[in-house]
Design goal:
Blueprint: E1 2-6, H1 11-23, E2 27-32, E3 52-56, H2 62-72, E4 76-79, H3 86-91, H4 94-120, E5 127-133, H5 157-176, E6 180-185, E7 188-189, H6 198-207, E8 212-215, E9 221-223, E10 225-226, H7 227-240, E11 246-249, E12 254-256, H8 257-271, E13 282-285, H9 300-306, H10 314-327, H11 329-339
Parallel strand pairs: 1-2, 1-4, 2-3, 4-5, 5-6, 6-11, 7-10, 8-13
Antiparallel strand pairs: 9-12
Helix pairs in contact: 1-7, 2-4, 4-5, 6-8, 6-10, 8-10
This protein binds nicotinamide-adenine-dinucleotide.
Length: 351
């Protein structure tokens, strides 16, 4: 099996690549532009594996995508490349429109021509999985869950750009008959998460006794999924998902942001005790504009049809994650220096 993974040097993409190469023994081509969020160090465990190849390229570049498809000849495409940080989309939406909308369009067009050539030769076992977010559905009130039928109602430039790309992917399925599947996932956490996102930011700021910024009153709720559970779900979807369908992926692990931050503080109190508890560092900051109150996923379709279940509950997953950051300074220290770690106001993005 030959799988082309876009965005494979990112947080979730690298977990997918590690899973496909190390667990499934598939041939994988990672295509990644290496923006600030892309990091080849996240692929260190597959770097010298003959099953893995890496191509630095922009999904907006049609000629580069054509060359990648023609030379690698994938059976599957898993499209994860995106600009993914909500706060960055608020201060500068252009890159989000370019990569998430124009880039997804370019990739879909390249894949369509490639697939149509194969189709002409009667080889039809090609699949394209477009990986998206539950943020396209907007915000929930206190009750209810996002299902695959929930109408789209995105709030941020990020979620609007992802919604646009979901519609393009579905249209390429309906109009051209291309074998497309869309997945919409809740917030991920785990190893190799870029240190601007809520969980790694809190762990690393706590480690350095810096303030722990929390938006508003911290009541916003997210449904957390361990990144390796997401990678397994995507593997099942690309192999056994029904063409033309959408699958929601979620961990049934709803937590408010302040609960998450306090849980990390208590783990840090045990692992790296300080004179006073880490909770003293919590600082409430002005809320993000358009901040969705609650996301929660109903993953029944994925569970019932494909037999997937999240293996990691939040309490064990968050401990593993904190431990990973404490043990892998080699990975995060260069990023944190480059990024000016610990800045207030940058947290709690899509991931
Ligand atoms: P990430 O920001 O960690 O990684 C994105 C990767 O895409 C990076 O390696 C980056 O270099 C690459 N990239 C960006 N622009 C590119 C371009 N023009 N051409 C080629 N490569 C490019 O993101 P992530 O958190 O791993 O998210 C991956 C996908 O999953 C995204 O599509 C995101 O919308 C979706 N998603 C994320 C979450 C989450 O919690 N992180 C939840 C649901 C869905």
């Amino acid at each position: 099996m030959r799988v082309l993974v876009t965005g494979g040097a990112g947080f979730i993409g690298s977990a997918v690549v590690r899973h496909l190469v190390l667990v499934r023994n598939y041939d994988v081509l990672t295509v990644d532009k290496l923006t600030y969020a892309g990091n080849v160090a996240s692929l260190a465990t597959v770097e010298n594996n003959p099953l893995h190849r890496f191509l630095q390229a922009d999904i907006c570049n049609r000629a580069a995508m054509q060359e990648a498809f023609d030379s690698f000849k994938p059976d599957r495409v898993m499209h994860l490349a995106a600009e993914s940080h909500v706060d960055r989309s608020i201060t500068g939406a252009r890159d989000f429109i370019e990569t998430n909308v124009v880039g997804s369009f370019t990739l879909l067009e390249t894949a369509r021509h490639y697939w149509q050539d194969l189709f002409g030769k009667a080889k039809t076992d090609f699949r394209f999985v477009h990986v998206s977010t539950d943020e396209v559905y907007g915000s929930l009130g206190k009750d209810g869950l996002f299902t695959e039928e929930t109408p789209y109602d995105p709030s941020s430039p990020y979620s609007a750009s992802k919604a646009a790309s979901d519609h393009l992917a579905k249209a390429w399925g309906r109009t051209y008959g291309m074998p497309v599947i869309v997945s919409n996932c809740s917030n991920n956490y785990g190893p190799y998460h870029f240190p601007e996102k809520l969980i790694p930011l809190i762990v690393l700021n706590a480690l350095e006794s810096k303030s722990l910024p929390v938006y508003g009153n911290g009541a916003n709720i997210r449904d957390w999924l361990f990144v390796e559970d997401h990678a397994r779900a995507l593997d099942l979807i690309v192999e056994r998902g029904r063409i033309g369908e959408t699958y929601n992926i979620g961990g049934r692990n709803e937590r408010s942001n302040i609960e998450v931050v306090k849980r990390i503080c208590s783990i840090m109190d045990t692992l790296r005790p300080q004179k006073a508890p880490h909770e003293r560092l919590i600082t409430y900051v002005r809320d993000r504009p358009g901040h969705d109150a609650r996301y929660a996923i109903d993953a029944t379709k994925l569970e019932a049809e494909l037999g997937w279940k999240a293996e990691e509950n939040f309490d064990t997953g968050i401990e593993k994650t904190v431990n990973w950051y404490l043990e892998n300074e080699w990975w995060w220290a260069p990023l944190r220096q480059g990024y000016g770690g610990g800045r207030l106001g940058l947290l709690n993005g899509s991931g």
